[in-house]
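Quick one: co-fold with zinc ion.
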Amino acid sequence: MKKVLFLAIISMFFISQSKAQDFPRPGCSSAIGQWMLKKKDTLGDRGVGDNYHMWDNATALKVKFMAGGSKVLRDKVKQYAKEWEKHANITFDFVTDGSAFTDLRIKLGKGYGHNSAVGTESKFRKQNEQTMNFDTLYFADADYYIASLKRKGINPPYNLNQLISEMRADPNHWNEKELKRVVMHEFGHALGLLHEQSYPGAINWKKTDSVYKYYRETQGWDKSKVDFNVFEMSNQFYTNGTEYDPKSIMHYSIAAWQTTDGYSMQDNYELSEGDKTLIAALYPKGKKESSLAVPKVDVTNVGDIKVMSDMQRGGLVITPSFDVKTNSKIGEVYFVARIADEDGYYLKAETDYYNWGGAVATYRKAVLLPNKKISYNKSSVKNLELFIPFDRLPQMGDKKIIIAFAVYLDDIKNKQMNKLMYFSTTTPLELPK
Ligand SMILES: [Zn+2]
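Sure, here it is.
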């Protein structure tokens, strides 16, 4: 689905003028839970800084590049990513392509737009999948390549294929300003920051057809994606007490016609003072933990999610195996297994029992003490079982099922519920007859 979407965007770009600013550009399409199953329950987790998905303070994140991207371009990405290190107590350790385990994986390529997983949500992605995309076509130094085409006597309008062949013949002429802006923005997401235009009440969007049409035509986004990426306001809690910061690198540019009051915003090209202050508060240097820290759980070493039929008890027994580490705050967690059909649609629950957000599900609650490590189903003794009676599963015929395993956290003290800490799915499984 995602691939189709982004390919569609590329095919409709044509360079009609001979000015660099007329090159099309993708917006950042970072979205929480974008890899999730269809008909997901909405998390409503947007904000300026997603406190529940911050890395531990003073972490050295292992970062690698997926195949692709010249050394010159990679070096520039490294250089601009490290701008954040001046202010945050976080290190980006760029490791070799062959490294087996990494926290962040960067794809420099064409056709995937610019986007990144938000903070520790990178952990939901498999080691062979990227956590961040940069569309290198939009980093091209357009003025340079247009001048080159003109020297050859080729007049506008130009198309993308011409640009691509120019880049192949004479690579590594980059628009530094744009590259730096986008790299700092996406690495801001990787550190857990969200779009600044989501600040509650900051932008009075004109939610008209013309705005939806604009994002459909320039980004290929459908209505729900525009609602999610552009219009959604964050929870006040996530502002971390900051003021709205129009200079933030995490802010979209906005045209006056898109707002009811004519408010507009140009792109920002540098970290704002607000960006520096917020990231330093979230990842303080010289301190063990941020004063803004909230309860979190770290789910690691997730093994196979075993699914067995228990004919005696008349149900499915699901035993995920994983380790959990808590931070300094107490939190209540739910281990949830939702059932989806083989096409990735959650099965609709018919009753309030065995129901999680409207989907057929089974779950267990646990109150986890601070600074603990707990292993579930890692030894021969099974200490976490998720059970669902057969009669709660709709008749599936010959269709297979997918189990979506998730860990949610309730932060009672801060009244922030249902924070997604982990998510993964099984491959399609045969249901017992
Ligand atoms: Zn973004």
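If it helps, The pocket of zinc ion is lined by residues 28, 30, 185, 189, 195 (CB under 6 Å).
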